[in-house]
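job 3f2a | input accepted
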Amino acid sequence: MNWSVPYTPATMCKSRRRQPMTRSAATPAAPSEPRRTGLIVFAWLWVGIPLAYGVYELVLKAAQLFTR
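job 3f2a | predicted structure (68 res):
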């Protein structure tokens, strides 16, 4: 890394011999990837439901422990 040049993303790209990630007006926009909302919701539910059940059971057990 060249320490004499102040760090900016453009200088970092030049030091790695890459072009900076900017778009000019002449460059067409890349096609966007499809949204995967359903998959994201399913993944959150796949993890969230067992987690919520575990927290619920934890609260019940802790209440039994401290309310005797």
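job 3f2a | The two ends are 64 Å apart (CA to CA).
job 3f2a | closed
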